[in-house]
């Protein structure tokens, strides 16, 4: 039983956890840790102040009618939340207030409400937790203090009974918790426009500042990458994309990113002041600092899928390249990898999934997208009968556990396993099941897995799955 995992999808009474305190951050109030936290650890489990509502109007009506049932502290903290774009810092309020104006309550819900997550099954049997306003909107008093960064340090899952915030990275005592308000696997100018239109602020996190300077060093690569992104956005809207075009987008964004990185490294040799102090001082950036000593030739020698470490500086450079790939390359690569997987080209899919997993691990470790990439990498390894498939399964269980809690891998991956299985490709005999069972131990529920395998192996043998007729990329999975 994992109290802060997928069990929260069912009605339950979670216990609160609060390893954080509010403080005055540079961009208004924020949350920081009260102790050192490891990746995957729950740092905050926060109940909503009211049950989730359909929208901000309903929240305002519910808060007005239930106002006297809130504790004085809840009233005070609710009133201290931001409620319009120019309301910062919010007025300090005392307890026992009269019922606040509807407009203010509506504003509080609009600015601080989080769409609740539900388990969604895609046509490809991929299960993910998706947050959509139609699931209901909840206001969490502690969780509302989380600030945004395009390089998040925590992953938040707003369940209807509880907001669960887990560390994505090592957090030291007193470190600020920052999460992503918007999709951060997009170029900086897209992220900034999105944040400006939805949240009325312009992001100036260190990743945005860094990325802006990297691409400014290579205007031609920047132009090519932006044009590729526009085409990708169009295809996402249409919901269709040919394999050829998607492959072209993936290759072209990887090349442009490599060129931008190489030219940036040349530029920074001449102009050591290229990066502002705000970037240099950030703990998140320090991982990439050594990479700034590398040369353009080092960049050209990088192999995206290659995992063979050469020397330390190249490892750092590969990490930096992966961070930059998260902006233009990751989203189309995710689509291409899914397409390859669906058309049962498992070896090719596996190589691409590994690259996607590593890029996602750089930007969003222990997040739903990291879990999806790692799980797909493990499933393609199994389907391709790769010798190392058990290692990939173990890695995906580890990541899934740090994202959703223990026991989640089975619930999320089992459907995909069955969907991808074909009697010829995945030799689903007892020995296969036993190997999988063994590699999940001890994190997952052995008994449950054994039962699943016994029933699904029997079921799958009866199903003669036909291979996908040609390329089918009509579903956008992101
Ligand atoms: Zn940013």
From TrEMBL:
Residues 13-182 form the SET domain. Signal peptide: none annotated. Pfam families: SET. SUPFAM superfamilies: SET domain. PANTHER family: TPR DOMAIN PROTEIN (AFU_ORTHOLOGUE AFUA_5G12710). This is SET domain-containing protein. The lineage of its organism: Eukaryota, Sar, Alveolata, Dinophyceae, Suessiales.
């Amino acid at each position: 039983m994992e109290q802060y995992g997928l069990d929260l999808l069912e009605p339950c009474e979670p216990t609160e956890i609060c390893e954080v305190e509010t403080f005055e951050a540079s961009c208004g109030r924020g949350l920081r840790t009260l102790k050192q936290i490891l990746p995957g650890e729950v740092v905050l489990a926060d109940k909503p102040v009211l049950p989730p509502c359909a929208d901000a109007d309903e929240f305002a009506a519910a808060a007005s009618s239930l106002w006297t049932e809130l504790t004085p502290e809840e009233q005070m903290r609710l009133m201290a939340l931001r409620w319009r774009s120019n309301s910062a810092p919010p007025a300090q309020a005392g307890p026992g207030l009269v019922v606040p104006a509807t407009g203010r309550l509506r504003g509080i819900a609009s600015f601080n409400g989080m769409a609740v997550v539900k388990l969604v099954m895609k046509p490809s049997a991929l299960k993910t937790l998706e947050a959509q306003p139609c699931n209901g909107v909840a206001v969490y008093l502690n969780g509302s203090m989380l600030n945004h960064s395009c390089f998040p340090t925590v992953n938040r899952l707003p369940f209807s009974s509880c907001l669960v915030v887990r560390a994505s990275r090592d957090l030291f005592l007193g470190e600020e918790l920052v999460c992503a308000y918007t999709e951060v696997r997009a170029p900086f100018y897209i992220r900034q426009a999105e944040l400006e239109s939805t949240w009325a602020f312009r992001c100036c996190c260190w990743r945005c500042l860094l990325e802006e300077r990297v691409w400014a060093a290579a205007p031609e690569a920047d132009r090519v990458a932006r044009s590729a992104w526009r085409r990708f956005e169009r295809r996402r809207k249409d919901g269709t994309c040919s394999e050829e075009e998607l492959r072209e987008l993936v290759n072209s964004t990887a090349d442009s990113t490599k060129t931008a990185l190489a030219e940036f490294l040349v530029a920074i040799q001449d102009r050591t002041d290229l990066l502002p102090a705000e970037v240099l001082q950030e703990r998140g950036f320090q991982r990439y600092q050594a990479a700034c000593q590398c040369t353009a030739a080092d960049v050209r020698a990088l192999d995206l899928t290659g995992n063979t470490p050469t020397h330390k500086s190249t490892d750092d450079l590969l990490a930096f390249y992966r961070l930059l790939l998260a902006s233009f390359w990751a989203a189309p690569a995710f689509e291409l990898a899914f397409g390859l997987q669906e058309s049962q080209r498992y070896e090719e899919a596996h190589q691409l999934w590994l690259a996607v997993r590593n890029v996602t691990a750089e930007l969003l470790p222990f997040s739903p997208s990291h879990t999806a990439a790692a799980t797909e990498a493990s499933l393609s390894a199994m389907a391709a009968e790769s010798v190392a498939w058990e290692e990939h399964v173990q890695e995906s269980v580890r990541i899934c556990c740090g994202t959703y809690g223990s026991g989640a891998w089975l619930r999320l991956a089992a459907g995909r396993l069955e969907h991808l299985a074909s009697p010829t490709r995945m030799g689903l005999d007892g020995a296969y099941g036993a190997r999988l069972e063994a590699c999940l131990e001890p994190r997952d529920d052995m008994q449950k897995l054994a039962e699943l395998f016994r029933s699904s192996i029997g079921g799958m043998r009866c199903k003669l799955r036909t291979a996908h007729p040609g390329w089918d990329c009509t579903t956008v999975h992101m």
